[in-house]
Amino acid sequence: MAVAPRLVALAEQMLGAAVPVRIRAWDGSEAGPPGTEGGPVVVVRSRRALRRLLYKPGEIGLARAWVAGEVDVEGDLYEVLGALAPLVWERADEGLAAPSGRRRLAAVREFAALAGPGLPPPPPREEVRQRRGGPLHSLRRDRRAISHHYDVGNDFYRLVLGPSLVYSCAVWDDKTASLEEAQAAKLDLICRKLDLREGQRLLDVGCGWGSLVLHAARHYGVHATGITLSGEQAALARRRIAEEGLEERVEIRVQDYRETGDGPYDAISSVGMAEHVGADRYREYAARLYGLLRPGGRLLNHQIARRPAPGGERGEKAYHVDAFIDAYVFPDGELAPVGRTVSLLEEAGFEVRDVEALREHYALTLREWVRNLEERQTEAAGLTTPGRARVWRLYMAASALAFERARIGVNQILAVRMTPQGSSGLPLRTRDWITPI
């Protein structure tokens, strides 16, 4: 019997729902529900993919097969992910009916027969195959986690992100013509929210390749310090600063926020960094930034959030770790609802003055990054590894859908360290930064 119909039947049996896409197997056979002819196809290139799933069922087994190129998609990746996502999310949130007892045993035997004899292939080299060493979110472990994600080649990131080298969501409007314009608008929005002025001191926590500190020094005349744990990021950021002749205004350090103690700063930005902090350390993170800021100074915390589970969650249960992202993308990254983040900032002493949701903006940004990657796949694979290029394509495309469907969000939180007299230093109507100065 042809392989593809057997795979479709097994998948439907295990999921307890119809498989909404076509599947092509290594023997050339193809099967799928009516109405999917001519659409995108999930290609299972090898029995090795099934052996991975047999020994590691679920997200990690599928991820390993995808990264190794044993499972692929012909056609629109978004269409396939969009069709499969509800099944994945429903199983995670509510649980789908699955076979039990004899039916389950029969399905496993059928799957094992299709997979063939042999041990599971080793995980792709792009996977974090051992814990990073040391307690969760210790200095040593965080450095290794950051290196895994960011030290994969500056040229690769330039290809994906574009010339701006900004690795966080851009800000779009109806007049925005390009990703570069949208990223410049985001950088300027942050500077206006922080009310940056000539001669002020700005600390950028998790500065990446230096785009924000460069923008702030160039256009607002500040003295900026950027900190990162990535040596590759720091090296390129320093070259960019030297090329613009801004060495006297901008400094880049390879340094953890817990090692920074040269305050007070007039303003602090933290853009796309707090997701790495984690539940165990978030109070420490918030308190450290509060201590580094002068009274009357502002903090702009730009952070991805997840939607809370129905009924609410407390403490560390409010944080979420995705298995695929933890193994291949952001080791030890954790997402929490925005309300949890606001509460912890307030507990540290900050007064939260504004929260702006940018969820749809991140979806638009991710689609641009995926387009860059898909248009130059061969070059991207050559700049890093084929497996890592596949990781980034899947992670960014799936994340775009998650933002579009409100599974996750991203928010800019503006907070202030009030003076002893209770002054925030903000205008009575805080949204005056919407119109560029």
Produce the secondary structure layout.
Elements: H1 3-15, E1 22-24, E2 30-31, E3 41-44, H2 47-55, H3 59-67, E4 71-74, H4 77-93, H5 101-115, H6 139-150, H7 154-161, H8 179-193, E5 201-205, H9 211-220, E6 223-228, H10 231-243, E7 250-254, E8 265-271, H11 282-292, E9 293-306, H12 323-328, H13 338-347, E10 351-357, H14 359-375, H15 377-383, H16 386-404, E11 408-416
Parallel strand pairs: 1-3, 5-6, 5-8, 6-7, 8-9
Antiparallel strand pairs: 1-2, 3-4, 9-11, 10-11
What is the class of the largest domain in the CATH system? Alpha Beta
In spatial order, strands of the major sheet run: 7-6-5-8-9-11-10
User: What is the domain total for the residues?
Assistant: 2
Question: How far apart are the first and last residues' alpha carbons, in Å?
Answer: 69 Å
Tell me about the biggest sheet? Answer: 7 strands, mixed
The CATH architecture name of the largest domain reads 3-Layer(aba) Sandwich
The helix content, as a percent range, equals 40-55%
**CATH-defined superfamily of the largest domain:** Vaccinia Virus protein VP39
Strand content: 15-25%
Order of helices and strands: HEEEHHEHHHHHEHEHEEHEHHEHHHE
Mean pLDDT: 90
Uncertain residue ranges: 92-97
**Individual helix count:** 16
Helix/strand class: alpha/beta
Rg of Cα set: 24 Å
Which descriptor suits the 3D outline?
Answer: elongated
- In CATH, the topology of the largest domain is named Rossmann fold
Q: What's the number of extended β-strand segments?
A: 11
